[in-house]
Amino acid sequence: MASPEIETLTQALSRLPGLGPRSARRAVLHLLKKRETALDPLLAALTAVSQRLATCSTCGNVDTADPCAICADPRRDTRQLCVVEEVADLWALERSRLFPGRFHVLGGKLSALDGVRPEDLAIDALVSRVASGGIDEVVLAMNATLEGQTTAHYIAERIEAYPVRVTQLAHGLPVGGELDYLDEGTLAQALRARRPVA
Amino acid sequence: MASPEIETLTQALSRLPGLGPRSARRAVLHLLKKRETALDPLLAALTAVSQRLATCSTCGNVDTADPCAICADPRRDTRQLCVVEEVADLWALERSRLFPGRFHVLGGKLSALDGVRPEDLAIDALVSRVASGGIDEVVLAMNATLEGQTTAHYIAERIEAYPVRVTQLAHGLPVGGELDYLDEGTLAQALRARRPVA
């Protein structure tokens, strides 16, 4: 139907979450028709991100610099550390603008089903950050899923020997819900009402 | 929240049809996390298309070559010409694989409301193609909207002096429907049952 280049672009777009083959085709047509206002800016933005993409070696955030903008920001409260499963969760919390501290991205959650063990996540790195001191509170902001809560309890046990307050998000989260899908009001409520791990 | 480069990319993606701010953010996260399998292929595909993007000077199709793959294909029946409003409609018909001829993209439809006049569309170019001979049939494949049908009637009048059979898609199309949204079965039926303009 179309040239191989256009087919390849359609396929690359259709693999993005939220786009299927049909919507990818519409997106490609939009890009082809609006070269100056759609294709060129997207290409420039992708190129810029691709050239400077970096994973923060401190917190695991994905950014265009290492350390990331959050770790490098002197206004962030270094005594508060929020542990999240994924970068998407970090971004979701940042959108609520309620957490003044820094983050630690685990890169997933413990899962017997998927064979994810503690050594597959950035848990040792988290313990090191806590052990090196300067942190008063660790907020465990895992998803309210079984695996998320298992991960939270495992981490709480790993760092209970250190002189830090360990809290978790209040269970205003709907059961089974995932952070990145929540509205910011619910997130804000859950963050404000966070409580010590029992 | 994120670096300016990532924000720019999110905005560029959110302007694509079918993606809003939230789904664009998810798509960006996916791209950042799957650099080798998502970001790099998309960047390469966009670059390839951007470098070779061309509008076919014969039919108005958007492709990576001029003439486009359809106009350059010697197996296409040059005696049949299908006139469509937009490139999206051409692609929709190509997906049904039932039309063996070539195409002519008008670039829109006549619209008093939007101030689109005949000289704003590729109608003169169509008349020239018909006048230059070698065409037996012109299939008017406009959308089954008021404006699409007005456009079809206008074109039928403009080319009635030439020795070509002028047909239009059968009105198996649902009223108010647009080609690009139809399933291929309906499109195929409409194409098979095309009939002369009364």
Automatic annotation (TrEMBL), chains A, B:
SUPFAM superfamilies: Recombination protein RecR (SSF111304). A zinc finger (C4-type) spans 56-71. CDD domains: TOPRIM_recR. Residues 79-174 form the Toprim domain. The keyword Zinc-finger applies. PROSITE patterns: RECR (PS01300), TOPRIM (PS50880). It holds the Pfam family RecR_HhH. Coiled coil: none annotated. It comes from the Bacteria. GO terms for biological process: DNA recombination; DNA repair. Gene3D superfamilies: 3.40.1360.10, 6.10.250.240, RecR Domain 1. InterPro entries: DNA_Rcmb_RecR, Rcmb_RecR, Rcmb_RecR_Znf, TOPRIM_dom, TOPRIM_RecR. May play a role in DNA repair. It seems to be involved in an RecBC-independent recombinational process of DNA repair. It may act with RecF and RecO. Belongs to the RecR family. PANTHER family: RECOMBINATION PROTEIN RECR (PTHR30446). This is Recombination protein RecR. The gene is recR.
